[in-house]
Amino acid sequence: MRRAASVLTLGLGLAAGWAAAQPCDKPVYLTFDTGHMGVAPLVAQVLQRQGVKATFFLADERTLDGGGSLDEHWAPWWRARAAEGHAFGSHTWDHVVWRGDERGAFRMQPTAGEQAGQRLTMDEAAYCAELKKPAQRFEAMTGRKMLPLFRAPGGKTSPALLAAAQRCGFTHVGWAPAGFLGDELPSERYPNDRLLAQALRDIRPGDILLAHLGIWSRKDPWAPAVLEPLIEGLKQRGFCFATLREHPKYAALAAGR
Prior knowledge:
This protein has helices at 2-20, 40-50, 75-84, 124-142, 159-167, 192-202, 223-236, 251-254, and strands spanning 27-33, 55-58, 87-90, 96-102, 105-110, 120-123, 149-150, 171-172, 208-212, 240-241. Strand 7, helix 5 and strand 8 form a beta-alpha-beta unit. By secondary structure, the protein is an alpha/beta fold. The strands form three sheets. Strands 1, 2, 3, 9 and 10 form a five-stranded parallel β-sheet that branches. It contains eight helices and ten strands. It has one domain (24-254): Alpha-Beta Barrel (TIM Barrel), CATH 3.20.20.
C-alpha cells in the first residue's frame, strides 16, 4: 500500500512538472505600478495562490500609513516578491510625470517626495538619477538587480525623453490598449464588474496588462474584486502569465545581451 501511494505521489509530481513545462502560446504580461500599497498584501496572496509571476515598476510613492512604498516598512514585502521570482523595473523615484521638452532638459512634475506637485526642469543627468534611484534602493532591499526597464508615470514620454532614458540604460515599457485594466478610473463610472467583463472580452495574447498597488482616487478598490477573477478567467480562456523577462521585445535586455 505504501509503495502504491509512493508511486501515485511520484506520478502526480511528474504530471505537475510536465504541466508546468508546457509551452505558453497565449502569454499575457501582468504588471503593477506602485501606489499607496493598500492592496499590496492582497495582490501578493492572489499571485501566490494562482501561481502567477508579475512585473512590478517601483517608485517611492506615499502610502496609506504616511510612509513611502520603498521605505523600510515595505522592504520585507519587496524581498519576498523578489524571492518568489517576480520581475522589477523603475517607475522613477518621485513618480515624476513628463510635461514637456526644453532644450537639453525636460519639464517634469513629481507626484511624490518633497517637491510633489511642483513644476521642475530636469536635465538629462537629473532624469537619469530619477530612473536609477529605485534600482539602487531595490538592490539594497533585496540584493537583486532590476531589469533595465522603466515605465514613465502615466505613460507620458517624448522621443527625447526615451532617448535620454536609453542612454541611461533603461528601455520604456507601456501597456496594451486592452491591458489598461482601469483600476485608476472613477468607480462610479467604471464599476469593477464592467472592468472585469471588458478585460476578459478584449485582452489578446501578447498584451501587457497594467494595474496598481493602490489608487487614492478610486472609492471601490479594483484588486479585491477583479484581480483573481481576471486571472482565473484568462486561464480558462487558455491564456498563461509571464514576466517581462520572457517578453520577446525585452528578453535579450533582461538577459544582458
